[in-house]
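Training component of the fellowship. As part of building independent skills, the fellow (R.M.) carried out the full modelling exercise for a liganded target. The chosen ligand was nicotinamide-adenine-dinucleotide. The inputs are recorded below so that the supervisory panel can assess the work.
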Amino acid sequence: MKLSNKVAIVTGAATGIGQAIAVAFAREGAAVAIDYVGKPGTADQTLEKIKNAGGRAIALTADISNPQQVGALIDQTVGRFGRLDIFVNNAGIEFKHPFLEFPIDQFQKIVMVNLQGPFLCAQAAARRMVQQGGGGRIINISSVHEDLPMPTNAPYCATKGALRMLTRTIAVELAPHKITVNNIGPGAIFTPIDADVEANPQMEAALMAEIPLGRWGKPEEVAGLAVFLASDDAAYITGATYFIDGGMLRQAGGL
Ligand SMILES: NC(=O)c1ccc[n+]([C@@H]2O[C@H](COP(=O)([O-])OP(=O)(O)OC[C@H]3O[C@@H](n4cnc5c(N)ncnc54)[C@H](O)[C@@H]3O)[C@@H](O)[C@H]2O)c1
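Fellow's submitted model of the complex:
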């Protein structure tokens, strides 16, 4: 197992990519704290999947844009499992509107969750990792949209672009502590965040035409990459973005 004796936190892990990462980490031997927002019980499906795989996990509620709740998330995880080795900034949101009509309150909400959240979480996680010694891993779930423009999605693209530079900058600052920081940039992965496209055959066909491999990615495929980046095999990788997009970015002519 690749993550034996490691302790991980995955944000937004009640659904989608976060759930798949939490389950994959637990299968590789990590003890996992599943962060969620919403009613108690929201993360039960993730907990159940981990239990069925023979893994160890707890569910903790924390809004990642709130400094006090982020602090409590780290403290409760360390209180339960004794340490923190891996932090996955997965939680994210999007609202789509034409730029000329984008409401400021929705812009601000996206910035709070997609940028302030990863900043606060990475900072709190890194402080803990520095204090305990021995290094650590921070993995941010970014997007192809850290490079690729998407009309009607300006705040989302802007926050993912900012996450790219947050990752590069703190990777350099944290390297002396043997803490690596990397991004995963998914393309179109079949999860609740794209429910509008999944429910509309025309929009779905247009999206598939943009993907050389011609299909949605699976959350489990993103989770496999996260396991690699969290493992000792990736000890010399930092400040990088790994795209997992079926070739979407190359076809679009991105960087
Ligand atoms: N699905 C895709 O095609 C795709 C592509 C590129 C990037 N991503 C990124 O992957 C990540 C996961 O998205 P997903 O596709 O699994 O969608 P999802 O909607 O299933 O997951 C997002 C999770 O974040 C949680 N969340 C929202 N606000 C939060 C907050 N303030 N605090 C804590 N948790 C919060 C939600 O409750 C949800 O569980 C996001 O960062 C998203 O931008 C997804």
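The panel noted the following from the submitted structure. The chain has one domain: 7-191+217-252. Residues 184 and 242 are 5 Å apart (CA to CA).
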